[in-house]
Amino acid sequence: MGYESLLRAAEREGVDVYERTMRPAIKGLYGDNVIWINRFLPTTAEKGCVLAEELGHYHTTSGDILDQQQLENRRQEKRARNWAYEKLVPLSGIVRAYQAGVKGRFELAEHLDVIEDFLEQAIKHYREKHGRLAVFEGKYIIYFDPLGVAEMFE
């Protein structure tokens, strides 16, 4: 799901998205059904990753969580990121990439239209959630360390 698809999804959900000039350290912000994306992000893939995380805030967080010194705010930040990882790097997407012959993390990131760092963090999320591997649809094993997919015999 790329940036344009996420923009359409946000619109369907009543969330306005604007690209604005922001300090380089700020990639995106969410508040009151409005998302701001830093217009100077270099690629649409990176904008999509940021938009997905901000949509994750729309779906999973509440209140002002800017103070990351507070434990509950950090938990809400993690929930929003995890939502984004599962939206842009779903297990089904990893399997489809395997079926398409994608080799390596760079190609996988490109296939999923995410930046490599986002892909790495998504894989880390899945390791935390599932352990070393996950079984998908009863016929694929997705290994997270090292990353790979195996198809089971019937």
Q: How many domain units?
A: 2
* Chain-averaged pLDDT: 95
Portion of residues in helices?
Answer: 40-55%
| Number of extended strands | 6
Low-confidence spans: none
Order of helices and strands: HEEEHHHHHEEE
The CATH architecture classification of the largest domain is 2-Layer Sandwich
Shape by Cα distribution: globular
- How many helices? 6
CATH topology description of the largest domain: Zincin-like
What is the CATH domain class of the largest domain?
Alpha Beta
Instruction: Please tell me how large the radius of gyration is.
Output: 16 Å
Measured between the Cα atoms of the first and last residue, the distance is 31 Å
Query: How are the strands ordered across the major sheet?
Result: 1-3-2
**Structural class determined from secondary elements:** alpha+beta
What fraction strand? Answer: 15-25%
Largest beta-sheet characterization: 3 strands, mixed
Task: Give a verbal description of the structure.
It is a single chain. With 154 residues, the protein is α+β, with helices and mostly antiparallel strands. It has two domains: 1-88, 2-Layer Sandwich (Zincin-like); 89-154, no CATH class. Helix content is 51%, strand content 18%. The protein contains six helices and six strands; from the N terminus they run H-E-E-E-H-H-H-H-H-E-E-E. The chain has helices at 3-12, 44-60, 71-88, 91-99, 104-112, 116-130, and strands spanning 16-20, 28-31, 34-38, 133-136, 140-144, 147-151. A three-stranded mixed β-sheet has the order 1-3-2, covered by helices on one side. A three-stranded antiparallel β-sheet has the order 4-5-6. A hairpin with a 2-residue loop joins strand 2 (28-31) and strand 3 (34-38). Helix 1 packs parallel to helix 2 (44-60), helix 2 (44-60) packs across helix 3 and helix 5 (104-112) crosses helix 6 (116-130). The longest helix is centred in the middle third of the chain and has 18 residues, at 71-88.
